[in-house]
């Protein structure tokens, strides 16, 4: 692409910021405009439910780039600016102040937003969500003042907030319709490890039941569960998943399903318009299906991949999905994208808090999670990629190096 051309990125968070950085690294000398609705320069969200929420980390540590980076790189960062519309027919964007901005290539990194609880009382003061730094600041103050928190939803955000609140000295209850925390991704065996982890840190778990109402006259005073119990609380945090922010794309006639649909090059159904990060439902050549990954590493890597492809590289994005979480003293990394499996096995004892879990389908590893075991995601991902049938005895034997588990290695 030439110096006279413009690449616009909508969504100034991790995927967008890394894409802008990559455009310059790859030598693009044209105009780069990075537009974001939030007031801050791009920052990382994982600390918001962990160290930042607890007050362990300074704000300065959560930014993607140093202050001054965007100006130095000649990237026009426009914060507090909402893009109202995309017009593919004229290759223009409409901004909230009415300005029309022309682009030659467009990248949509509009991310995701928390799903809202829709039960009676859900709008009462004292019901919190957690997505941005303002939410984290408000929640940190509220947790400091609360005597008892109810977390609705035992997914990643709910589980991490529960852990942080316990570490901050607040009483915590957590409610989820699943039989164990994180049931959808982890399944019963590994979910049980997280149930035990939270229970051992004093979280009251209400599992196998939903929330029917937030109770309270003027402010949230607790929740009523579907099985008829009332859990008293002076603070409620809702973590029931996120929805991709597809509204701009949809209105522009770009194909949208569970996210903005992109091919393996991260290009949408409209030529010249790309999408990456939480919002993108990308065709994954290795998995043979479209996947939308709502995790940090995906935004970190897809942003740059989209940038290179906008410049004409046409590289397929086929990384093994990966995420991490930290709860209390358990740090874990998960690789893979397992939705169907027939067996779960452990290398090491989960009761010791140090182990690797493997999810298998037809004798092949489809996902692996290392908990308090480090520097093993390379071999775990190699096992997943190999699609080799593995010997379970060798897979679960800590004495056999993971690199030597797959046949033929
Ligand atoms: C509290 C929290 C903890 C997390 N912890 C982990 C973790 O431990 N491990 C992990 O792997 N992942 C974690 N994640 C997930 C990870 O942060 C996300 O996957 C990542 O932020 C996705 O980045 P993104 O750039 O795709 O989108 P987002 O971070 O969602 O950013 C999208 C940006 O686009 C802006 N935007 C949207 N529409 C418009 C518009 N029309 N005009 C202008 N701007 C717009 C939004 O305001 C937002 O700033 C966590 C997320 C949260 C919220």
What's the architecture of the largest domain, going by CATH? 3-Layer(bba) Sandwich
Structural class: alpha/beta
Q: So how many helices?
A: 10
Note the quaternary state here: single chain
- Give the fraction of residues assigned to helices: 10-25%
CATH topology of the largest domain: FAD/NAD(P)-binding domain
Tally of distinct domains: 3
What's this model, at a glance?
The protein has helices at 14-25, 51-54, 69-72, 133-145, 156-167, 183-200, 247-251, 296-310, 377-386, 392-395, and strands at 6-10, 31-35, 75-78, 83-87, 92-95, 100-102, 105-108, 112-114, 127-128, 148-152, 171-176, 204-207, 211-215, 222-225, 230-232, 235-238, 242-244, 256-257, 259-262, 273-275, 280-284, 289-291, 322-327, 330-336, 343-347, 355-361, 364-371. The protein has 409 residues and is of the alpha/beta class. It has three domains: 6-113 and 243-310, FAD/NAD(P)-binding domain (3-Layer(bba) Sandwich), CATH 3.50.50.60; 116-240, FAD/NAD(P)-binding domain (3-Layer(bba) Sandwich); 329-404, FAD/NAD-linked reductase, C-terminal dimerisation domain (Enolase-like, domain 1, 2-Layer Sandwich).
